[in-house]
Amino acid sequence: MAWDFETDPEYQQKLDWADKFVREEVEPLDLAFPHLQFVPLEGKRREAIDPLKEEVRRQGLWATHLGPDLGGQGYGQLKLALLNEILGRSSWAPIVFGCQAPDTGNAEIIAHYGTPEQKERYLRPLLDGECFSSYSMTEPHAGADPTLFKTRAERDGDEWVINGWKFFSSNARTAEFLIVMVVTNPDVNPYKGMSMFLVPTNTPGVEIVRNVGLYGEPLNDGSHALIHYEDVHVPAEALLGGEGQAFAIAQTRLGGGRIHHAMRTIGQAQKAIDMMCERVLSRETAGSLLADKQFVQGYIADSYAQLIQFRLFVLYTAWEIDKYSDYKRVRKDIATAKVVMPTVLHDIAWRAMQVHGALGTTNEMPFFTMIHGAGVMGLADGPTEVHKITVARQVLRDYKPSDDIWPTQWIPKKLEAAKAKFAEYLELEVGNQ
Ligand SMILES: Cc1cc2nc3c(=O)[nH]c(=O)nc-3n(C[C@H](O)[C@H](O)[C@H](O)COP(=O)(O)OP(=O)(O)OC[C@H]3O[C@@H](n4cnc5c(N)ncnc54)[C@H](O)[C@@H]3O)c2cc1C
What we know:
Layout: H1 9-32, H2 43-58, H3 77-87, H4 93-96, H5 103-113, H6 116-127, E1 133-136, E2 152-156, E3 159-170, E4 177-183, H7 190-193, E5 194-200, E6 206-212, E7 224-235, E8 239-240, H8 246-282, E9 284-285, E10 288-289, H9 294-324, H10 331-355, H11 357-360, H12 367-377, H13 384-396, H14 411-421, H15 423-432
Parallel strand pairs: 1-4
Antiparallel strand pairs: 2-3, 3-7, 4-5, 5-8, 6-7, 9-10
Residues 102, 135-138, 143-144, 168-170, 224, 376, 379-383, 385-386, 389 line the site of flavin-adenine dinucleotide (FAD).
């Protein structure tokens, strides 16, 4: 029997250290340096943050998603899940621990598909936490359906020339390079006609037209870029993986990215429960504590139940990824976690906000940021609806149609079969009556 829900004591010690470190040293960065996570470190910010990264390295918790050959510990996804649910409490924590999206996914595909030269140029600084990257896939007219993408790269001697538009390329404004998904052969099935390119952001012709902000951010001062690629010349060596391989590469990248978001979402939802519980034990109304009201007890029970199911499922999925080392094989469960994630975070954050009364709705508490985050989780890396389609298709794969007009479980037919199977005993029973 190999089922086991225990963390080995040595790693638990590291998690306990990380929990304290994030609460005391990292969470304050969210307030001291808001919205600066993806701005390269300099001056006083570097002085404040470099020693924290150093401490994480000393503890052996830097970039734990990577194998030792790439500077990580090779802990795998299950251990990363346990760590990420701590890091999910703070927007700075993934940076301080060297495992922030979208750079983790980008590093993963360069490690997997990159040439030695590409690894040296792009992967090394990424792993050292000294540069940022951007993944440029969504287009203004199409996101959920990548077969509609139009951005085009055409071969010109030893070069490729890229033309088109991309939308919502996160962190492009501070990224050293972009990973761009483009059509390289419009005459074949889109699944075979698209390729990925590594494009330095300062390449002539790459123009960030607008930096779209999320809700609450100033207009045109956000981190999700609308980019115009106009006659962008890149050498043949800028191709990542083979020509026509973009979809396979995207799956490698997005599979990991999605489950990492789910891991961090556990941390956010747990933080909302923590705040909810503290509040209901602190606030009295209509003759008793909020904690004594049955409606409120319902909020707590429902929140605990939702989170514990989600958490166990995410840990199980992480365990599957470690076991099979094959995102494709675990696709159904990654998509399921992606589907469940926004609802879990939304529902729990909403209840936590509600029990805080008016204060809960203000910008002095983090609930609306969490609720907005839930909305983001329902879109980033693909909308919930599309992932539900994936889940349903994968589930249906294990079934076949009934070979009769009546369902296999139709009771009259099963009864006949049961009677035939046990005929000799049934006759005896009848005879005895
Ligand atoms: C915070 C954030 C960060 C992001 N970062 C990046 C990034 O770094 N790089 C990048 O390339 N993209 C990024 N994206 C874009 C993201 O991948 C897209 O938003 C997503 O794929 C959906 O595309 P769309 O926004 O064009 O919506 P559309 O494709 O227009 O879909 C809109 C809605 O239509 C419905 N819908 C779509 N397809 C179906 C279907 N088959 N069946 C039923 N309903 C459907 C869904 O309700 C969906 O939300 C980011 C998005 C967010 C919110």
